[in-house]
């Protein structure tokens, strides 16, 4: 049973390939709240932007995500991360992705180049003061990087999903390809404070254990139940405590906000 399950995850032929959720110019801003026992700290912020570029006659989306702790929390655990992916707008397949990661004492630079014809990705990773490590990994038909995955998930059609259904995703993370999935958790309402109240879709991505995150299905994401599927609220356990990520402002939405409750 397990073996077939594994190959099923990798034979995803139904890749998401059309974008109806966003367009260049969209910007989403978040605040990050850290919780440990009775302690609540608004400790950081994150911004996600969609840009565009034309390279060799192709129109590309440029997905840019950055997150950082506020300076007065840097003593506690400093985070300064920047991620950027260039993605073919016609197929939603990433061409290149780069990441600069600064989390506590961790300093890393990642650069990946995807070749979907050969089903390979070329990775260059520098960790701390160690020499750069270059590698080639085998990818599946729909393998994506973590930045692209955020935008990919916004184009999944959840309308035929039943509660607890899973949607497979092949993720290139930290130089390795992982078969992960998103578990559909149904619908609900979320009150985004000053931004208003929304009808939402909820799901839980399977997390791969990392420096901050615990592995497993602890993360819950609430996205607007409309064509935009904007992530409004995310909560996730981390190694010590948990974090909540809340949308604070946005601009440049592609579609009308049909999920907003008047």
Topology, pairings included?
Blueprint: H1 2-10, E1 27-36, E2 39-55, E3 58-69, H2 74-77, E4 79-88, E5 94-103, E6 106-115, E7 120-127, E8 133-138, E9 144-145, H3 146-153, E10 166-173, E11 176-191, E12 197-205, E13 220-224, E14 231-237, E15 242-251, E16 260-261
Parallel strand pairs: 9-10
Antiparallel strand pairs: 1-2, 1-15, 2-3, 3-4, 4-5, 5-6, 6-7, 7-8, 10-11, 11-12, 12-13, 12-16, 13-14, 14-15
Plain-language structure description:
- The chain has three helices and 16 strands.
- The radius of gyration is 18 Å and the shape is globular.
- It has a 16-stranded mixed beta sheet that branches.
- Strand 7 (120-127) and strand 8 form a beta hairpin.
- It has helices at residues 2-10, 74-77, 146-153, and strands at 27-36, 39-55, 58-69, 79-88, 94-103, 106-115, 120-127, 133-138, 144-145, 166-173, 176-191, 197-205, 220-224, 231-237, 242-251, 260-261.
- The termini are far apart.
- Helix content is 8%, strand content 54%.
- By secondary structure, the protein is mainly beta.
């Amino acid at each position: 049973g397990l073996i077939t399950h594994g190959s099923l995850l990798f034979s995803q032929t139904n890749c998401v390939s059309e974008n109806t959720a966003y367009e260049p110019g969209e910007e989403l801003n978040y605040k990050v709240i850290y919780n440990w026992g009775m302690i609540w700290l608004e400790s950081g912020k994150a911004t996600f932007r969609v840009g565009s570029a034309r390279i060799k006659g192709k129109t590309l989306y440029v997905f840019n995500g950055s997150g950082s702790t506020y300076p007065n929390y840097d003593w506690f655990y400093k985070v300064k991360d920047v991620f950027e992916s260039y993605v073919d707008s016609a197929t939603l397949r990433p061409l290149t992705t780069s990441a600069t990661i600064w989390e506590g004492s961790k300093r890393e630079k990642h650069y990946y180049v995807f070749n979907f014809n050969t089903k390979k990705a070329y990775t260059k990773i520098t960790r701390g003061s160690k020499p750069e490590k270059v590698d080639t990994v085998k990818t599946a038909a729909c393998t994506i990087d973590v930045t692209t995955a955020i935008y990919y998930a916004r184009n999944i059609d959840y309308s035929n999903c039943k509660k607890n259904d899973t949607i497979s995703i092949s993720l290139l993370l930290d130089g390795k390809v992982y078969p992960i999935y998103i578990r559909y958790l149904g619908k609900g309402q979320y009150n985004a404070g000053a931004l208003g109240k929304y009808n939402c879709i909820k799901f839980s991505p399977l997390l791969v254990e990392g420096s901050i995150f615990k592995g497993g299905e602890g993360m819950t994401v609430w996205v607007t139940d409309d064509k935009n599927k904007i992530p409004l609220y995310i909560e996730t356990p981390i190694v010590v405590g948990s974090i909540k990520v809340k949308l604070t402002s946005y601009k440049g939405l592609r579609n009308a906000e049909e999920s907003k409750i008047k």
